[in-house]
């Protein structure tokens, strides 16, 4: 096959697994007949020997690119950093822990050949902790309700996208990156294919409650619905306050109730004003957020057009 494939993998404390991921993926690509492929491995602030392993792989395989971030910037920001150096016609996203297993790659390529722009793997059963599974469910509901993700579409760390989707999402400059939000903004031709979720070979997930909360809150960069919900609440308060005021006057209700209705009326006006101002702030925020997503300390094999 003449298509060029880029594999982007965020690496976090994966010194004992990343070589297995790369070499097993090479075997799969060779078996599928791919002639041109590369790996973009991003060390997301790991303090072990993860980047040393990446350097060893880059010396062994000229088509392995390495990026070392100066600090932990989060999985999605690390992926975006890798995307910017991916040259392939297709970009394959995978994890570094063998849970998104190379043996499942062919399923994604088979599905995307049906005319889709992006394919998400779909796990029938997730081998995650209870906290991670809960975080995934909350994040999924949030994305569906506030961003409009189709209910039947499921996301996972293994996905395949076409080059133009990559070209679009790397334009993002927001610190609070949410890949689902970026993908959904870029195309609607997204589908699932069922893949097996393997057990982690070594270690444990790098997601704790704080990181899950940060990931969940990143959806705010891709919707102004919360602000609009506040504006709707202000209208509701205005209506309640007005009705209560009329009833107080008609039924000669004591003055304290008139004060309550007036307070509700004024509260509605104030909240409405905050909602309107918030709408402008939200839009300006989306345009003007320029805090760095990541800082690259060093790279290896970047700029060299070499493929496996």
How would you portray this structure in words?
The chain has 308 residues and is an alpha/beta fold. It folds into two domains: 4-222 and 291-300, Spore Coat Polysaccharide Biosynthesis Protein SpsA, Chain A, CATH 3.90.550.10; 225-288. It is built from ten helices and eight strands. It has helices at 18-32, 50-60, 75-83, 105-112, 130-147, 163-169, 179-186, 209-217, 225-250, 255-288, and strands at residues 4-11, 36-43, 64-69, 90-93, 118-122, 159-162, 190-194, 296-300. Strands 7-5-6-4-1-2-3-8 form an eight-stranded mixed sheet, with helices on both faces. The longest helix has 34 residues, at 255-288. The two termini are 12 Å apart. 38% of the residues are buried.
Task: Describe the secondary-structure layout.
Blueprint: E1 4-11, H1 18-32, E2 36-43, H2 50-60, E3 64-69, H3 75-83, E4 90-93, H4 105-112, E5 118-122, H5 130-147, E6 159-162, H6 163-169, H7 179-186, E7 190-194, H8 209-217, H9 225-250, H10 255-288, E8 296-300
Parallel strand pairs: 1-2, 1-4, 2-3, 5-7
Antiparallel strand pairs: 3-8, 4-6, 5-6
